[in-house]
Every structure is written in C-alpha cells, then in structure tokens.
Amino acid sequence: MRAITVLPGIACSARLEEVPEPAQSDGAVLVRTLALGVCGTDREILNGSYGFAPPGQQRLVLGHESLGVVETAPDRCGLVPGDLVVGVVRRPDPEPCVACAVGEWDMCRNGRYTERGIKERHGYGAERFRIEPEFAIKIDPELGVLGVLLEPASILAKAWDHIERVGHRARAWQPKILLITGAGPIGLLAALMGMQRDLDVHVLDHNKGGPKEAIVRDLGGTYHSEPSALERLAPDILIECTGAPAVIRACLEATSAAGIVCLTGVTEPAKMFEFDIGGFNRTTVLDNNVVFGTVNANRRHYEMAADALARADKAWLRRLITRSAPLERWSEALEHRKGDIKVIIDFRT
Known about the structure:
The protein has helices at residues 40-46, 150-167, 185-195, 211-219, 228-233, 245-251, 277-286, 299-311, 314-318, 330-334; strands at residues 2-6, 15-18, 29-38, 60-61, 65-72, 84-87, 90-91, 114-116, 120-121, 128-131, 136-138, 177-181, 200-204, 222-224, 237-240, 260-263, 290-293, 321-326, 342-346. It is α/β, with parallel strands linked by helices and 349 residues long. It folds into 2 domains: 2-138 and 319-346, Quinone Oxidoreductase, Chain A, domain 1; 154-293, 3-Layer(aba) Sandwich (Rossmann fold), CATH 3.40.50.
C-alpha cells in the first residue's frame, strides 16, 4: 500500500512510497483511509523541526487528522464494516501517569505518551491503517468527508470543557461575549461551538473581506479586522488561535473581570516582546482572571466534538474545507496558499 512518509528531523525528506500493510499490533480494527487533514504540525515535521519515528525505525508515516471507513472489526467491539471513523491521536504512556491511568492522556504528566503521525507511532497517512477499537471514534455518516474536521474540533471541545470548568468556579457565571482571535479552522470551529452555546460570538482576523468574513457572518457571528476590537469588546471568554506573540500579548489583559483566556496556538520560542508583567499580574489577581493553555484531546473530547459537528449546518462546515489534493499530488496539500482554511488529502481519488 502507499503511504506518505518522512525522515523526522530532516527537511524535504517526505515521499509517497510503498510500505507494508499495517501491523496487527497497531489494533484489531482495519480501516481504509478516505481523507487526511493537514495542519501546521505536519508542516513542522516536513521542515525537519519536529517529529519522531517509531523505535527502531527511520521513517514515520505522516498524518494525524484522519477519516476512514472500517473494513474489518472484531465482533462486539462497537464497530462494523462500513462505519466512518476517526482515529484518536495520542496514546497513554507504557507506565501510565495518574492522568493517563484514568483516560486523560491529553493531560499526561511525564511526557512518555506517543502520538499517531507525530511521536513514535505511525500516522494515518496510508491507504489503510489499523487502530484499537477504544481509540476509534465513530461519526455520523451524514458528515461524510466533513468527518476529517473531527480531530481539530476535538481540540476545541477540550478547550470548551476546560473553559466551562473554570467558569463554574463562580456559581453565578453567565458569560455573554466570546472573542476569538484567528479565523483559521481552529478559530472557526471555536466560533461554531460558541454559537452552539448561545454566546455573542466575535472573531478577529487580519484579513479584511473575503470568505472568512462571510463564513463568520453566515454563522451568526461578528467579524472584525481592526485590532481595536480587543480593547473595545471586553469579552467574558477569549480564545486565542493565532499563536502570534503580539496578539497573545494583547489578549492577556483584554477580558472583562473574571474573564477567561484560553491559548490554543503554538508559538515558536525566542520571540521577544516588551510586556508589563506587573500590570498583567495586578489585573489578573484583582479581577480574578484566568489564562490557560490547551492541546490534544481524550476520547471524551472527541465524542463531544463529534456531537458538535453532527449538529452543525453541513453546508457551513463544507466551506471550511477550501482545497483538496489527491494522494498522488499530496505535496500540494502541504503548500500554504492564500485563502486556505482547511486543506485535505483525498484518498478516494
């Protein structure tokens, strides 16, 4: 079978090649790949700045945003041939920490977890893959190829889970205004989940006009392209999805009292900015504000995300996938092009 593989740590080493069929040890469920989403993590692996091959192997099968159809599955495992599934990315460490031991591998304490297509486990960027039943998430068949959005949506489901847990530290917590910075796939999925919570949703992005503005408007939110929106809105909840240091700095003191800032973007280190840490500390303490970061997701979050996508307007979701490339031209999907939101590799063509 064909798979997209890379030599981790070596830029420009990715290729489409023939590889053996997936090992039975990867899981009892055999899945035929339908689509693979790509994101910044994949580009980091391709340029050699991240990624780890499985122990004893040189190359890593790329891909963590999966969608496939079950071909074979054990009896009474909850899956049958024909089911559409998405694979969970992270696996708990071999000697589980307290978090991994209770199924919260996304909160692993010791870093010995593995991740499909990223860290010491082959990914889903092959024509077929195997997976353990407990790490396969069954999705609504009406989603079709839109199911490839589940992995990024799971990150936002976790973000909302933690936001609500933090918010309910105050019994009278009743948030009204949500501000999201960044109108990429993460930001737009955050906006979708905010609308599903009946919040007044605002999205700030540097692009003025164009499809992103229309997508936010048609969702029922308000789109902003002026940075002054950060100072003007005073949101109860702010979800930062750009990873841009200047935007993060502005977000940290932009909420209302008892506000919550959730950071989802990953920033390159050594980005230096002047920052009034004393003023930030004073405001955060006196206003009971919270700033936290989130990454990855556990099975519960995938299931929450699957429910959110199933309830969403499918025509609206379809607009988030702006470009696809067939497997033979997989490298085109990894190129960053103007107007891209979510780009996928289509294994069906």
